[in-house]
C-alpha cells in the first residue's frame, strides 16, 4: 500500500477538495435519516457486487501529483448461510506525474458459515523507495546530496519494480479460531539509484546502505494461526484479534535468500461508551538468517507507513527484529441520540487520536527502553458505507524522534485511505 509523507502546508488545498468530494459521495450513499458513524454488527449486508469507490488524489515531494482510485468490493458469497462474515476485496490503482505506477489488492474471503477463510494480497509497484540503513538511528546517517551543497538527506533514494503475492488459506478449527498455510512470493528488479541522490562525498555511508541486498526473489511458506472475535473486520467496535504466522524462505522453493520469519499481531477493541472505540495493538516480528547473513531490504522488519506506526516513512527504522505497540481512540463528532438540525450530516463524521511506538534491533542487540521511537497524531473519519461501516480515513502524524528527517528535523505523515489502520 501507498503511504504519503509530506509537510502539511504543501497539500492542504488538495486535501480539502478530496474531503468535500468524499462528503458528497457519502451523503449520496445515505440509506436513511437514522444512519450514524457506526452501524451494529448485525446490519444487513449490502447487495451482491456492491462497490465503494473513492478518488485517490494527493501530492507529496516523493510522488508529485497522484491520481487514481481506491475501492472496496463486497461479494456475498456464502451470505445465504446465517453467521457468515461479509467478505471484501480492496484495491488501489494509482499513476503519478513522476511516472510511478501502483496496483495493489487485498482480500478477505469467507466461505459459507466461515468454514474457510482466504486472505492475502497482490502488488505491482514501480515506485521510488528509500534505504535508511539498519537500526534505530536514522538521523546518524546524514549524507550530502552534492559536494558543497548544504542540503542533506539521511537515506539513499532508489527506484525498483516489485511484484508480490501473499496468499493465506485457513480453516475454522473452533469458534473464532482458524489454522492453515500461507506463502509469500516477491521479486524485485530494475534497481536504479535516483540520479539526484548520487555524488556522495568519499567515505559517506552510501556504501553501507547499498550493502543491503535489494534485487532478487524471495519465496517462503509457513503456517498461520488466527483467533478473530471482532464484530466487524473493517471497523470493529469490540472483540479480539490474535495472529501467529511464520515463513521459511529457502532455495528449495526458488528463493535467492534463506531466512525464517516469526510474527505475532495482537489487537483488542473496547466499546467504552455508545459508539466510541478504544483500539490497542502490539506487534512482534523476529527474523533469523543462517550465520547472520544479511536479510534483504524487503525481508527486514520495518516501521512506518500508512498502517504501522504512522508518522514515519515506511522503512525509516528497519532491522531483523521489531517490537511495537499502538493505541487509538475513535469517537463521533455528534451523539447518536441528538435531534439537532445538522445531525444527519454530522453523524457521519468522527475524529481519532493515536500514538505508536516501535523499536527495531539486530541479531546481536538487546531491547533498550531509550531506543523506542514514538509517533503521535490524529485524524478525521467520514462514514462512507453505513452497511459495512467502512470509513474514509484521513490521518496526520508526527514522528517524535529527533533527526528522523535529517539534522534537526522530524518526519511527518499525511495518510488518505479507506478503512482503519488496524
Poorly predicted sequence stretches spanning 5 or more consecutive residues = 1-47, 197-203
- Which structural class best describes the helix and strand composition? mainly beta
Task: Give the quaternary arrangement of the chains.
Answer: single chain
Question: How many beta-strand elements?
Answer: 20
- Roughly how many Å is the radius of gyration? 22 Å
Strand order of the largest sheet: 1-2-3-4-5-8-9-10-11-12-13-16-17-18-19-20
Order of helices and strands: HEEEEEEEEEHEEEEEEEHEEEE
Share of helix, binned: under 10%
Which key phrases capture this entry?
single chain; 422 residues; mainly beta; 16-stranded antiparallel β-sheet; two-stranded antiparallel ribbon; 49% strand
Short description:
The protein is mainly β and 422 residues long. It has helices at 12-28, 206-210, 343-346; strands at residues 50-60, 64-74, 88-96, 101-110, 116-131, 143-144, 152-153, 156-174, 177-193, 216-228, 239-249, 259-270, 277-288, 301-303, 317-319, 321-332, 349-361, 373-385, 390-399, 412-418.
Amino acid at each position: 500500500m501507498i503511504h504519503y509523507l509530506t509537510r502539511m502546508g504543501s497539500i492542504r488545498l488538495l486535501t480539502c477538495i478530496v474531503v468535500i468530494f468524499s462528503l458528497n459521495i457519502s451523503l449520496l450513499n445515505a440509506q436513511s435519516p437514522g444512519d450514524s458513524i457506526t452501524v451494529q454488527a448485525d446490519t444487513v449486508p449490502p447487495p451482491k457486487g456492491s462497490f465503494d469507490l473513492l478518488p485517490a488524489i494527493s501530492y507529496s515531494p516523493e510522488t508529485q501529483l497522484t491520481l487514481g482510485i481506491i475501492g472496496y468490493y463486497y461479494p456475498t458469497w456464502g451470505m445465504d448461510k446465517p453467521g457468515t462474515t461479509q467478505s471484501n476485496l480492496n484495491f488501489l490503482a494509482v499513476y503519478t506525474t513522476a511516472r510511478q505506477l501502483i496496483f495493489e489488492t487485498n482480500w478477505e474471503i469467507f466461505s459459507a458459515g466461515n468454514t474457510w477463510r482466504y486472505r492475502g494480497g497482490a502488488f505491482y509497484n514501480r515506485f521510488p523507495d528509500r534505504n535508511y540503513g539498519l537500526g534505530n538511528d536514522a538521523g546518524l546517517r546524514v549524507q550530502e546530496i552534492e559536494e558543497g551543497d548544504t542540503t542533506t538527506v539521511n537515506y539513499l533514494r532508489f527506484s525498483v519494480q516489485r511484484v508480490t503475492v501473499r496468499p493465506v488459506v485457513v480453516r475454522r478449527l473452533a469458534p473464532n479460531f482458524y489454522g492453515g498455510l500461507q506463502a509469500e512470493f516477491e521479486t524485485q528488479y530494475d534497481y536504479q539509484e535516483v540520479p539526484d541522490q548520487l555524488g556522495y562525498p568519499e567515505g559517506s555511508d552510501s556504501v553501507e546502505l547499498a550493502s543491503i541486498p535489494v534485487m532478487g526473489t524471495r519465496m517462503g511458506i509457513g503456517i498461520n494461526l488466527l483467533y478473530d472475535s471482532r464484530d466487524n473486520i473493517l471497523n470493529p467496535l469490540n472483540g479480539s484479534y490474535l495472529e501467529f504466522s511464520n515463513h521459511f524462505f529457502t532455495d528449495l522453493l526458488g528463493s535467492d535468500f534463506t531466512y525464517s520469519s516469526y510474527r505475532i499481531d495482537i489487537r483488542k477493541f473496547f466499546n467504552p461508551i455508545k459508539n466510541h472505540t478504544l483500539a490497542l495493538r502490539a506487534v512482534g516480528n523476529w527474523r533469523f538468517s543462517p550465520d547472520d547473513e544479511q536479510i534483504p531490504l524487503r525481508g527486514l522488519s520495518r516501521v512506518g507507513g500508512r498502517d504501522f506506526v504512522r508518522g514515519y516513512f515506511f522503512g525509516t527504522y528497519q532491522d531483523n527484529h521489531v517490537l511495537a505497540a499502538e493505541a487509538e481512540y475513535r469517537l463521533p463528532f455528534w451523539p447518536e441520540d441528538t435531534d439537532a438540525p445538522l445531525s444527519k450530516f454530522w453523524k457521519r463524521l468522527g475524529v481519532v487520536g493515536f500514538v505508536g511506538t516501535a523499536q527495531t534491533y539486530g541479531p546481536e542487540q538487546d531491547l533498550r527502553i531509550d531506543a523506542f521511537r514514538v509517533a503521535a497524531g490524529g485524524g478525521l473519519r467520514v462514514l462512507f458505507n453505513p452497511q459495512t461501516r467502512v470509513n474514509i480515513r484521513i490521518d496526520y502524524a508526527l514522528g517524535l524522534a529527533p533527526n528522523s528527517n535529517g539534522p534537526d528535523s522530524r518526519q511527518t505523515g499525511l495518510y488518505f485511505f479507506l478503512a482503519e489502520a488496524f
